[in-house]
Amino acid sequence: MEDLMSNSPESLGGSKARFELFNLPLALFLVMAAVVFGAVMLNVLPSGMIGAFAFMIVLGTLLNEVGARTPIIKSYLGGGPIVVIFGSSAIAYFGFISDRTIGIVNTFMSGGGFLDFYIAALITGSILGMNRKLLIKAFFGYIPTIVGAVIFSLGFVYIFGVITGYGGLKALFFIGIPVMGGGMGAGAVPMSKMYADFTNTSADYFMSVMVPGIALANAIAIVIGGLLDTLGKKFPKLTGNGNLMKGVLPAGSSFADKENPKSTLAVSVQTLGVGLLMAVTFFCLGSIIGKFIPAIHSYAWMIIMVAVVKVFNLLPEKLESCANQWFQFVMNNLTGALLVGVGITFTNLGHLANAFSGVYVLLVVIGVFGAMLGAALIGTLFKFYPIEATITAGLCMANMGGTGDVATLSAAKRMQLMPFCQISSRIGGALMLLVASLLLRLFNLVV
User: Fold this and answer.
1) The pTM is what?
2) How many other β-carbons are positioned within 10 Å of the β-carbon of residue 107?
3) CB burial of residue 444 (10 Å; 0-12, 13-18, 19+)
4) pLDDT tens-digit profile of 299-348?
5) How far apart are CA 117 and CA 77, in angstroms?
6) Cα–Cα distance between 46 and 351 in angstroms, integer?
7) What whole-number distance in Å separates Cα of residue 6 and Cα of residue 383?
8) Residues β-bridged to residue 24
């Protein structure tokens, strides 16, 4: 995926691309944008998915185009996705849109389940479209790679916490573990309650300490994702261009299943509909299993079940192709809209500003760097490409869960790696809760 909406100069090429936005003639798109922004300004943007889609697609398209054309950002920082996330966050934070519009986006992203809808499409389609050999071989090396990222990250944070005078255990509990903990809902929230139970201190206090570090680490992971994409272009031997493991698919090839190339199904309205139903059905299946075995997140169960279906060839190739086509449709048309939601709903510039306090920032950076280094080193032992291992088992352990995964992969232009990143966020996040519980019992947490 050359760009998140496949309409930038880099992705379409030629002079025609300069006059198109969202694959529409520029004049027509601007008319549509004027209508949508007019509704926003007059505070009559329709509530629900209609208004949310209209505003998020238009704003995401415009900000993506800015990022795709801005020097330095375009070449080194991930281009469009970076600008979409932080630009939309700034628009909301500085009051350029009304609280009502912000509320429509927030509701659509959270209560409306757009993030879940998007991730369901990516997980189902990318796994079912994956090479079976890669899936089988990668699984056995991926968990150790996550563990390596955790050990390096926490070890570095502890050591530098001692060196800087911040305190080794304080850095470990307040920065290292929360940063590697799977984001907010699956990480910081239960972790803060756990800390509160052990110290008889308010969970709100621990949330206020954890949130800035988590937000800053998420921002760092997004930016580094873009830098790693640039690094891969300069040093091709370091990357599989979206393929995680060496020796299964040639570097630069598609992530789609190459075992049966003749089975590719022509895209149609019907195939997209089947893919949609498959994605939401697998999501429901994960939720059902999660109800009975809540120790593992429903996302993780979804990944496991889709992987089982793929490994044991339980679905006809036609249906696998339908799921992969739906994944491609959602990724190419709705990523910009989703990133606007990530920026407005999940990226708080105030929290980022609060994190900028010398040693605290240094320790967050050290934690992210440790995760990257551990993932790259251990991943290489299991024949993973260093850049892909760093992104999935490193950055996607250190970012803000599902939303961070989408943003980081968008910046890195490797959205096909979403299943592995979700393993990091969900299974890895659950692992960090276990680590936190064990360390709290071993050491005395002083507030």
Assistant:
1) 0.72
2) 16
3) exposed
4) 778 888 998 999 898 999 999 999 999 988 998 899 889 889 888 987 77
5) 27
6) 30
7) 31
8) 21
